Amino acid sequence: MGGREALAEAGDVEGWLSPDQAERLWNAAARVRPPGRIVEIGSFRGRSTIVLRRAAAPGVELVAIDPHGGSDRGPREITADAGRGEADHEAFHANLRTAGVDAGVRHVRRPSQDALGEVEGPHDVLYVDGAHRYGPARADIERWGARTSQGGTMLVHDAYNAVGVMLAQLRLLVPSRRWRYLGRTRSLAEYRREDLSGLPWLRNAARQLGGVPYFVRNGLIKVALVAGLRPLAHRLGLPDGDAWPY
Fold first, then answer.
1. Which of 29, 147, 229, 234 has the most CB atoms less than 10 A away?
2. SS (H, E, C) 87-130
3. Residue 224 and residue 202 in one domain
4. What is the DSSP letter of 32?
């Protein structure tokens, strides 16, 4: 089984993880050896959580952090809504039960920065898909990223896509001497925790800046969609069937 198959098994679980992104996420989780740990920030209704749990070996801990407050659920759904959040919470656990993985997931129902005290020690894989505004995105990458083991992996969803996430990348990751950029699948960027200096550091920064045109393209697609110009959005590169660039 791989990420695409695990996503197919998730069925109609709502979310924004694409099949090719699920494959990258699967590969990162599958590399973790027991008694390792995977931390997911932003679980929504369990689409990526199911992929991570299916990929991870028995004995690897999976911590899913999501307050399910009904806020930051996706494009243009930023403000909190308690009823919507409770529906997300119930759907999240129902979806995990249906997939047979609920018992293998530790859910911390708190905002990511409040959850720092709930999860002790380092982790091997960090998947960041929480609030995409600059402040929360920067805090997740900075504070949770600092807990990633040397040689560990950080994956950031909506990289080169959401404005807040892009600003956090430019501030923290492009000039970083601690994170090597490994590439991306659409808007899912992957980094490895390692020390960089000299020419490798400069090349690492240049590789990341090479994704800026993709960010600009996604911005133009969003403008076209908001303006009701879907044919133009497809001409700009939005895949058929996609409601929003991811």
1. 29
2. HHHHHHHHHHHHHCCHHHCEEECCCCCHHHHHCCCCEEEEEECC
3. no
4. P
Contacts of 238 (CB under 8 A, 6+ apart): 221, 225, 230, 245
Is the pLDDT confidence value at 76 over 60?
Answer: no
Q: Tell me how far CA of residue 95 lies from CA of 15, 24, 103, in angstroms.
A: 12, 21, 12
Answer yes or no: pTM beyond 0.90: yes
Q: Please tell me whether residues 203 and 222 are part of one structural domain.
A: no
Short-list 80, 69, 65, CA closest to 113: 65
What is the C-alpha to C-alpha distance for residues 64 and 135, in angstroms, rounded to an integer?
20
Residues 34 and 87 in one domain: yes
Distance of CA 96 to the CA centre of its chain: 18
Do 85 and 198 fall within a single domain?
A: yes
Q: Do residues 113 and 229 share a domain?
A: no
211 token code pair: 């994704």
Residue-wise pLDDT tens digits, 126-182:
999 999 999 999 999 999 999 999 999 999 999 999 999 999 999 999 999 999 999
Distances (CA, A) of 228 to 23, 176, 185, 231: 32, 39, 27, 9
Residue 6 burial (C-beta neighbours within 10 Å; 0-12, 13-18, 19+): buried
Determine if the peptide bond prior to 136 is cis (ω within 30°): no
State which residues form the domain around 206: 3-210
